[in-house]
Design brief:
single chain, alpha/beta, Arginase, Chain A, 8-stranded parallel beta sheet, 9 helices, 10 strands, globular, Ureohydrolase_dom_sf
Length: about 300
């Protein structure tokens, strides 16, 4: 299976200040692990371009886009604070544009049958960004931009977004809540930022909150009981993954207790759905994961599964 690894060196330059958990070493941790496991040279490496403005405006308001662009610091200027944990330096706008551009590029390559699936190793992450608001380390909603691109440019009728980050994908949920073409499945610790826990809606929204201390076994049970039946019923033509690895037991940003192998398992389940309904079309976009060694191993398990390697 041809799997693309889409990233850009400029994503490293985005910096929200000393001690911030969302840091450039996250991308190095994944890269180093893939090289150590001799997977790096088996991937198709693609450089992420800047996203087109039209793609951003499918999911974000003009006002939101202008706010980010107008407040991006110039060379040598101080950080601009959007929220206490979401800040921009002089490279953040460029990084955010390329993070969103990675997903749309992946969609186009898959639809053109140049690759079968892709992992977008990007930062800043995106799934907390709402239509008109940045938060939770996120400026633009990368996964929503990619999904809307698939719907509009490639005229698909049904796409699914699955999100296994430890934090609920409130931005993705808000952007697509009125769009019947999108099924959104989200697993997360609750209560925890962003403190969103809406009831599930059949064929549209499948929220599966987990209590503090929940293990991978409890996550797997929720996926089997709720996600998989919904995905089979929906029959998505394309599947998008918000791939957060911060539910790992080593990650102290939250208190779930997943193991490395849990990320391989859920990826394999998603691949089985994609094989049956979606012509193997999967775009995975990095969200959270802040314990560097655990992030590297978990992302490797996820990517190895995308590559269909044991």
């Amino acid at each position: 299976m041809r799997t693309a690894y889409i990233t850009h060196a400029d994503l490293i330059k985005h910096d929200m200040g000393d001690g911030h958990p969302e840091r450039s070493s996250r991308l190095y941790a994944i890269q180093d692990q893939l090289k150590h496991q001799q997977l790096w040279d088996l991937l198709e490496h693609i450089e992420a371009p800047n996203v087109e403005q039209a793609a951003l405006l499918r999911v974000h308001s003009q006002q939101h886009l202008e706010y980010i662009v107008d407040n991006a610091p110039g060379s040598g200027q101080a950080l601009f604070q959007i929220t206490p944990d979401t800040l921009m330096n002089e490279h953040s706008l460029d990084a955010a544009l390329k993070a969103a551009g990675a997903g749309t590029t992946a969609v186009d390559l898959i639809m053109d049958k140049q690759i079968e699936n892709a992992f977008c190793a990007v930062r800043p992450p995106g799934h907390h960004a709402e239509r008109s608001k940045s938060m939770g380390f996120c400026f633009f909603n990368n996964i929503a931009v990619a999904a809307a691109h698939a719907l509009e440019k490639h005229t698909l009728d049904r796409i699914a977004i699955v999100d296994f980050d430890v934090h609920q994908g409130n931005g993705t949920q808000e952007i697509f809540e009125a769009d019947d073409r999108v099924l959104f499945c989200s697993s997360y610790e609750h209560p925890l930022f962003p403190f969103s826990n809406r009831p599930s809606i059949p064929n549209k929204l499948i929220n599966t909150p987990l209590k503090s201390g929940s293990t991978g076994a409890e996550f797997r049970a929720q996926v089997q009981q709720h996600w998989l039946p919904a995905l089979h019923a929906f029959k998505p033509q394309f599947i998008f993954i918000s791939a957060g690895f911060d539910a790992h037991w080593e990650d102290d940003i939250a208190t779930l207790c997943f193991q490395d192998q849990d990320f391989a398992w859920v990826t394999q389940e998603i691949i089985a759905i994609a094989r049956r309904y979606s012509h193997n079309r999967i775009v995975s976009v990095l969200e959270g994961g802040y314990a560097l060694k655990a992030l590297g191993r978990s992302a490797e398990q996820h990517i190895r599964a995308l590559m269909q390697l044991s």
